[in-house]
Amino acid sequence: MIREDYKDIRCIAEMTDQYQKSFDLMVNEYAKKLSDKLIENNSVYTLHDFNHHCFNIYKIISEVLFSEIAFDKKRGLDSRELYILNLAVLFHDIGMNSLDMSRDNHSKLSADYVQELYDTQEFFKKNSLLTLQEIKALKEIIIAHSDIKDGSVPEQYNGLKSPNLTIECKLDSGADKYLRTLFLAAVLRIADELDVSCRRLGEADLERELRKIEEKVYSNKSGNDFDTKGKDFDYLNSLKHWKRLHYISDVKREENNIVLQIDDEEIRKEMDASQSILSLAQEIMNIVVKIRDEIKMANKIVFSTKDFHQMVYIQDISFNTNNNELEKKTHEAIDYRKTAIVNSLEKPSENIKETLTEIIKEKDNKNDEIASLEKRKLDSLDVLKENKNKLEETGPKVLDEKIEEELSKEVIQRGLIQFGHYILNNDYCARDWIDTRELIETKKILSKIVGVIVKNLNGLEEESVIIGVDLIGALVAARVSFTLQNPLTYVVSSKNEGLNADMEVEISPRLLENKIPVLITDVIVSYETIKKIIEKYKINTEKILIVTVFYRPSKEYGSESNFIEKTVSLNNKYPIELYNKLDCRYNKKGGCFAKNRTLNQKDEKSEEMMD
Amino acid sequence: MISFDKDKIIYIATDFNMFFITASERMKYIRYDQEYDLTESFVDEIIRCIISKPNFEIIIDLNNVGYVPSRSLSRLSEYISRVIFYNVNKSMMISRIENELPELVRAKTDNSIYCIESRIDKALKLEKEIKDIRKNEIRRVIKSLISSKEEPNYLESSGLYSNFYVDVKQLFVNVQDFYYIVFCLAEQLYSKMNRVDAIVSSSKNGAIIACILAGLFDIKEVHIIGVGPKYAMKLGDSIDCIKEGKKYAFIYDFMCTGTELKIISALINSKKGVLEFAAGIAKYKEHTGKNILENVYALASTDELEIDYKIFGEFKREEIQ
Fold first, then answer.
1. Coil, helix or strand at residue A340
2. Is B181 in contact with B141 (CB distance < 8 Å)?
3. pLDDT beyond 80 at A290
4. Is B288:B270 a contact under the CB 8 Å cutoff?
5. What is the DSSP letter of B152?
6. How confident is the model over A459-476, as pLDDT tens digits?
7. Range in A104-108, A512-516, B180-184 the model is least confident about
8. DSSP 3-state assignment of B198?
9. Which of B151, B173, B238, B254 to mutate to test the interface with A (most CBs of A within 10 A)?
10. How many Cβ atoms sit within 10 Å of the Cβ of residue A69?
11. DSSP character for A586?
12. Looking at chain A from residue 278 to 307, which residues have their Cβ under 8 Å from any Cβ of chain B?
């Protein structure tokens, strides 16, 4: 069902009654023919229907692109030009509905469709009020809205460079009748490009369908099976376009600039799904740069000529987000390409004055802010003390409760918790031990562990170095660092020094300079190992982050709350039962009969084995 | 964009770049592929590189690149006097180049080089050099890990000494170098991985490399702890991770005398498993390990690195250079 509120959009409402009536007839008859297909020929398309895409374009033209002058009957577009523009919007993607639908030449197909309507459909001929020449003009506007990529049109004549578009197209019907096809084509092209927000997304069930496809394509494939040519690639490439729509919540005008409002909530969701901030910044950059290039071309060819800049004046396009890291990374990505799209009639002096006023205002605001911050600091100390006590009872923060449950299930179902006698350290023995090596050697589990850790580390504001503690920690750290594309190193606890080559034990102190050290280990019981490592390698504890797969509290060890605050865990569900060595029945002359003794362990001295 | 620069040449290994870029995008599903797609944004990167280095030749290696969005390559048309394409082997890429950059010609009828006509001689002259560039980059990276110490380096596995130490741990710190080495290893092992059920390692550095490769190939990994370099197996460890009838590949970092390979081979054999091949970053000599196993692969040997790497049985300071 066609939504009726399109009639209130200014570019439609400003037409005379006669044209509005005709336009309503066109919409009622042909809007339903616009493609609402989502998946066709192994490609996933964003919606090209009237209720979303066309509607959005009308809004963008009226509220973002056009100035007041554009609607002025004398200095702006007359009713006929508005009518032709509105028809161009209505029909520009109707070619997506054809049987051999393709992105590459859909604009040409849409134009052909309009010609066919004129040639064969009495209804269209009678009610469209278009002359033959106007049909030709309408077709050229439609063709120019998207480059034809099938090779049939040379690059120098594609899009707005088409020789069939003119500044002024004189019509047969009278000397004072003309159509500015080049201008109208540019408006349609830019408005089409700007329809990148989530308003184009459609219904939630379509969204779910697409996510299912994505999961199916990825989850069943290994590197060898992934079909980079056919169906899988088409889906995923198109899905990329679809996903991008989620990132922008709105497109708006701010003085001479167009601003894309980033949907920070969606960005956060993507990062939680292990998408890196770098790749998200890249996506935003791609969107911004593409639109910027289009605007630049339109400015050069059309908007800066004659009086068109009075109707459409765009200085630049930018984006707005509250995610500082995303903002920084995106700016870095587009910085080398940032060229201000300056219209020939810029007004610098007014802009500077306004900017200065803003700076002074900001400074005053900052002073007030500092004063209130001081007060909040004092109030929050009590809250901090309370939280500290809570932490000691519950252990470090668990990253993901669902993963915690899954890990617990794996431990039980696969019998990964083994019972017997194990050496913990010089003072204690333990009655059980979790086979973390077996856990890490299971692909599925390792992927989940790495995924959760990456999700947590993603978006750290400063550069980090990933440090694996002993073998299992090093393996997890390797995957995490490879995924995040961060530097990796590993450290060796004093209990394992004898098991490593001497050179493997060292790390360069310079590696840790100006970076957040992220220590990754498999199990923490008492923090003794961690403390010794920090001391040995002189690791800065101010910004340290400790990640452990299992946190195993015990009665014997009080929680090191300083470290607990800096620790995150994947599973806190397995407290450990310890026995004082002096009381241990297995502590015979010659040492402990422990399952985790190594062949080269000296009998007269118990070594720390697990901590 | 990652490029290898030499003299006035900028060499862009497109497949490696796309691997690096898509790794950060795919995150959960980083895999090694034998075919890559060139993206529009990477073409932007290439253009940016061309503009920023006005006096350089740009070599774009399209090895294993099978697709680029239409009209993307045409954006390079104003720079084609400085660009040479190598390894244009895939039919779609050939078609794209011929349609979108019609000024380019094949340097020879039977090769995969495209450039403007006036640069054919230059392109053919550079062909040998281009073939070696990737290998040279591998050598550069590995060589950067090799250093001599004040005293002879004690090789824990074999009990011998060497005059140099290969600090593979240092490789992990440099993200691009590490990615490149992993990429090259994966490329070398791609066709062989379907012969094995799991990959196995013994040392910590080897375990890290094995862990990454296991992720790229979605294959099981097994770490036999306590075999090397220092011998510290757990009392009564029965190596349950090695299964009868299963096939394994041993992944190492640097193979000096092959002692760890021997131990691993014996352990796998004792469990009635099969060691299909061994692969790693570097080894002492081309033939190292071949007395134990027929297929022992490495990205480079010390001979190729032109390093006078020596092994000796006694602690001798005079052997240090």
1. coil
2. yes
3. yes
4. no
5. P
6. 777 789 999 998 899 999
7. A104-108
8. strand
9. B173
10. 16
11. T
12. 278-279, 282, 285-286, 289
